[in-house]
Design goal:
about 110 residues; mainly beta; six-stranded mixed β-sheet; four-stranded antiparallel β-sheet; 10 strands
Length: about 110
Amino acid sequence: QVQLVESGGGLVQTGGSLRLSCAASGMIFSGNAMGWYRQAPGKERELVARITNGGSTNYADSVKGRFTISRDNAKNTVYLQMNSLKPEDTAVYYCTTGLYWGKGTQVTVSS
């Protein structure tokens, strides 16, 4: 079955960086668009970034210029490089194919 496993979350100070990874299995990774969503306490889940199977990307306005999504089809992995982190980036970050979801990884940015 399809499995998506996120890693790389943690606690970081304002202005710091983290790189999230999402390892996929049980699917033809290279043929799928992949996305990162996040959900903060008391808020709805929101799209952070998306990358198509061809490598085209789009980002939420709130993260443009700070976050970069990328993929390595040889490793069946999608990444989210997060720079200049802000307290409002604190959330659980989820990897998704659109149909399948990982369990998420917590990102906490201290002020």
